[in-house]
């Protein structure tokens, strides 16, 4: 019985650790240049020349992850959310950036800044976080 309990406890710890790994997966899914508008798993694809976001306005459910990628997987991507934007667990790795929405009770829209650190270029699209 103790072995079963210890095994289940180990699996629970491993499962919790995989959430962080999943959030920072570095596979570029934007090679075609188009993101998706799935509110549960949105992906924003960013044109490396113009920094235009696809989709330009993205909607995200509370508690869900969002991923941003530069289409050609080059450059140093940073996303800057203004103070008060309900996001957490932010991170980046080269041309990939991710964040998780906090819980909100009403839909709220926020401008955010796409910043390519190598060149200093910026663009300001919108994110809407929903309950």
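Q: What amino acid sequence fits the structure above?
A:
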């Amino acid at each position: 019985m103790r072995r079963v309990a210890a095994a289940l406890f180990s699996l629970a710890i491993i499962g919790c650790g995989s959430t962080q790994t999943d959030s920072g997966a570095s596979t570029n899914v934007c090679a075609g240049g188009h993101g998706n508008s799935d509110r549960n798993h949105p992906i924003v694809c960013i044109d490396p020349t113009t920094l235009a976001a696809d989709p330009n306005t993205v909607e995200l459910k509370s508690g869900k992850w969002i991923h941003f990628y530069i289409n050609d997987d080059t450059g140093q991507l940073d996303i800057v959310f203004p103070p008060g934007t309900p996001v957490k667990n932010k991170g980046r790795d080269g041309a990939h950036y991710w964040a998780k929405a906090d819980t909100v009770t009403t839909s709220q829209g926020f401008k955010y800044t796409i910043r390519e650190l190598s060149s200093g270029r910026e663009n300001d699209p919108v994110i809407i976080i929903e309950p």
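Q: And what stands out in the fold?
A: The first strand starts at residue 43 and ends at 46.
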